[in-house]
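sorry for the late reply, my laptop died twice this morning and i had to redo everyting from scratch. anyway the thing you sent over, i finally got around to it. pasting the sequence first so we're on the same page, its 337 residues, then the predicted structure underneath. double check i copied it right bc i was rushing
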Amino acid sequence: MLETIATYDAVAPDYADRWFSLRLTAEMARFSQRLGAGVRVLDVGCGPGRDTAWLAEQGFRAVGVDLSFGMLEQALARGVATPLIQADMAHLPFRKGSFKGLWVCASLLHIPKQQAGDVLRELARVVHPGHIYVAVKRGDGSEWVADERGRRFFAYYHPAEIQLLMERSGFEVLSCWENADSAGRSHPWISVLAWTRMQTPKAGTCAILLNEAGEVLLTRRADNGQWCLPGGHLDFGETVEQCVVREVYEETGLLVQTERLVGVYSRPIPPGQGVPVPRHYVILSFLCRAAGGELRLSDETSEARYFAPDALPDGLWTWHRDRIVDALAGQVAPFIR
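ok and here's the structure:
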């Protein structure tokens, strides 16, 4: 993070010259329509203050925060008259519920994915209750982008990935959309509008994939070390079978085909059982078979291994263990639990 900030300090004048006049008109309109008149709004990673100034022009009590002092100097040089604070978005110097809106445009993408959940929970702390707009770049994995003045870190996301991350961090996603990059760069933008209220259960899938020896494939999460079945949340517009195929490929590199529905599992999960805030998931579990690909890791996984059903690892979520038992029970009709 410090290397990224040092690079932004070095490029701040050129960056401000290039981007200060840009207006994200459609995104700003969708965000502002969710807010009450004159409420406090925090521009997180405000850079040279372009969007902070726009928020103030709309009548909001805007505050800009950025860790790059060079960027804040550019905001002052361009006449941004709102409060500007040098601070880390992971440790904001504000009380709980200080703001009704958070504008997080092109800043969360500089945080490694293993730390992004903690950052989002910190953002949820200062905005609860309220709304948040987040913009990240679409893509796979992460990379350092370098030029003669330094390097910057970028983490890339898929729509379902950023939505799930936000939901696990205390937000309910209201809408998610994509736009091409206005400068023609290769990564399109994902925009997410959310708020700090969870209303309905979330749907997802998981895969029970057996090898020829009858062992079941498990992955170990990179963020908390838990063993689990590969799977995840549905993207808008996809079927449950498409979801499980996509999730297995993203997490393990394997191509699979579904053989049968093992069960439908619906249960609330209280805080402390693998999630930081209360959750309610409806998960469809499929027995799958491998159809290609090669086993590999992803940003979400630190290990991927096959285990004998009678030698499953410690740290496997209890409800995932139950789904494995159901898959091996030989029952034709799906379990409803």
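The first helix runs from residue 2 to 19.
thats about all i looked at so far, will dig more tmrw
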